[in-house]
Write a structure and sequence with these properties.
Strand order of the largest sheet: 1-2-3-4-5-7-6
Shape: globular
Number of strands: 7
Distance between the termini: 31 Å
CATH class: Alpha Beta
Length: 159
């Protein structure tokens, strides 16, 4: 069973290690700490608690999402799912949790970027209502970055 727990400065090394597994140009622990220290930044770590059964392996990280909200806009800074947990809906769950939190904080729009050749990520984002709004030529080491945005659902936000 996957549990989502808040990410804090104490998790910077863990977040950097997960990022290193998932990305060719990973963020360092220092970068993670700097991002988490920014005003309006939040994060979640997906932890696989299924292994809490007796004689099982200890729980371990499965994914992460970091986002930042400033006034009525929010941005996914990074989102990653470790290989053993991919294609099981965890990326969607992390994205939805970030979108919900940003909306509760007053954000009306969320932005994110993905490498143009990351078809799985782009398909996920489109399934959650994100639409392309820009292109950054060669942004990811020669691969274009697709900027996407999505209006956040304010109807589910408590007053």
């Amino acid at each position: 069973m996957i549990e989502l727990i808040p990410a804090g400065l104490v998790h910077a090394d863990l977040l950097a290690g997960m990022h290193r597994i998932c990305f060719a140009e990973p963020w360092s622990a220092t970068s993670m700490a700097e991002v988490l220290a920014l005003a309006g930044s939040e994060g979640l770590i997906a932890v696989d608690g299924a292994s809490l059964a007796p004689a099982a392996e200890p729980p371990g990280p499965a994914g992460l999402v970091l986002w930042r909200r400033i006034f009525d806009e929010a941005e996914i800074l990074t989102i990653a799912v470790l290989p053993p947990w991919r294609r099981q809906g965890l990326g969607a769950r992390l994205l939805e949790a970030a979108m919900d939190s940003a909306a509760r904080g007053g954000a009306l729009t969320m932005f994110l970027e993905a490498a143009a050749n990351n078809h799985a990520a782009i398909a996920l984002y489109q399934s959650k209502g994100f639409c392309p709004v820009g292109l950054r030529k060669g942004y990811y080491g020669g691969v274009d970055g697709v900027t996407m945005s999505c209006g956040l659902d304010q109807t589910s936000v408590e007053p």
